Amino acid sequence: MNPSPSSSGGGSVPARELWGTRWGFVLAAVGSAVGLGNMWRFSYIAAEGGGAAFLLLYIVMIALLGIPLMLCELTVGRRTHLSPIGALRELGGKGWVPLGFLFVVTGFLILSYYSVIAGWTLRYAAEAAFIGFAPDPGAHFGEISEGRAAIGWHLAFMVLTIGIVMVGIQKGIERAALILMPTLVLIVLGLAVWALFLEGAGEGYAFYLMPDLGELMDGTVLRQATAQAFFSLSLGMGAMLTFASYLSRDTDLNQEAVTISFADFGVAFLAGLVVFPVIFALGLQDSVTESTVGALFISLPGAFVEMGTMGRVVGLLFFLALGVGAITSAISLLEVVTSSIIDELGMARKNAAIGIGILIAFVGLLSARDIDFLGLADAIAGDLFLVVGAFCMSLFVGWFIKADPAEELARGAGEGFKRFIPLVIFLIRYVLPPVILIVLVFALQDTWAAITAFIVGS
Ligand code: TRP
């Protein structure tokens, strides 16, 4: 095996660092995927979208669309051993460089507000530990979600993220993932078992899991399942591409994609098994229908307050797990931007991570000062840009790439997976582009509505 990178043409770049172990890569990728999206967005969409019937549909979407799209990113990353811009230039030519820039801009923007939300999470964990949850969570959230309080925690979270990324792949990102991801899974698993014994848990499970086939026939649900699959798997902005660029040639990409996707689904499913029993045990189901980020920070703390001391312990664990999920996702967002700067400008990792991290933290101040701006940034980068990125990526690997993706997928692949490669290529060429295009049309409408709402509101 030859782990040396292909030259990006940007001068003498030192040999690229690789993951230390297979599990290092898998856990870092799962860390990227598991985040705020799993803990709240998923449960809510699943419950509204038909419960157990939705879960089945969601698994089908992951297998049919999520895994092939992830394989698009993984093949390009591992094949070139370059960050998105250089990778697209090498396999597509100059015309595809703008897509690389889109990835970098998306990562930059998402991290700028993701960090603000993560800051709220850290603050809630700290409050649970030291003073307990506020008695009026709605009013409290209003106080801490914007302004000086939000800025402090946002900056603290950015410092943490920069601190990990600047150290490098093995000693920074890989080590953090090896410690943090098992911790997160243990906490969520523990909470799910605890929730089993709550009075009224049964109603929560029923709401979450009751199969409702009628909902499935609704086009919105299909679209939501697709969008949620992409968002939750961190696809559409080169995060998986970048992580795969640190992989050696002998890994089985197919197996990694399956492992990552099902781990991500597993955590989302488990989180639902915590959220719904807690909410139903306390009769707070009305608040479930608000899908905004705020709901996570209002209705759940409301439940924890009513549970007394036990609620404080559980709440601390819950927000700690959420914070852990957020930081491992933030790492991958910053890594996309950082690795691009390292490759394109030949900067040292430490300088690149610190420099760009400070810039992102600065832009994030806009979201920390104004929650409406945060919503706008999410509508533009989190909804629209990710879908545009996913669409272009599927077109690129399906039709324009100057290399054979089937050959790259077969490299290091086990016999069992090899048989599926023609099917994967078929899905990439003929199924992904049209399906993502449909999602894109809706995303455009949603984003446009968000932009006009912001302008009218301010
Ligand atoms: N997957 C993350 C979550 O579930 C959010 C996310 C979307 C993301 N795209 C990303 C994280 C790209 C890192 C990189 O919360």
Strand and helix layout:
Blueprint: H1 22-33, H2 36-48, H3 52-80, H4 84-92, H5 97-130, H6 137-144, H7 148-165, H8 169-196, H9 201-209, H10 213-216, H11 219-232, H12 239-244, H13 253-281, H14 293-306, H15 308-345, H16 349-369, H17 371-400, H18 405-410, H19 415-418, H20 421-457
Helix pairs in contact: 1-8, 1-13, 1-15, 2-11, 2-13, 3-4, 3-11, 3-13, 3-17, 3-20, 4-5, 5-7, 5-15, 5-16, 5-17, 6-14, 7-15, 7-16, 8-13, 8-15, 9-13, 14-15, 15-16, 16-17, 17-20
Bound molecules: tryptophan (TRP).
Tryptophan binds next to helix 1, helix 2, helix 11 and helix 15.
Describe the structure.
With 458 residues, the chain is mainly α. 79% of the residues lie in helices and 0% in strands. The protein has helices at residues 22-33, 36-48, 52-80, 84-92, 97-130, 137-144, 148-165, 169-196, 201-209, 213-216, 219-232, 239-244, 253-281, 293-306, 308-345, 349-369, 371-400, 405-410, 415-418, 421-457. Helix 1 (22-33) crosses helix 13 (253-281), helix 1 (22-33) packs across helix 15 and helix 14 (293-306) packs antiparallel against helix 15 (308-345). The chain binds tryptophan.
CATH fold description = Amino acid/polyamine transporter I
Oligomeric category: single chain
Give the fraction of residues assigned to helices.
over 70%
CATH architecture: Up-down Bundle
Radius of gyration: 21 Å
Individual helix count: 20
Beta-strand percent range = under 5%
**Average of pLDDT:** 91
What number of domains? 1
Bound molecules: tryptophan
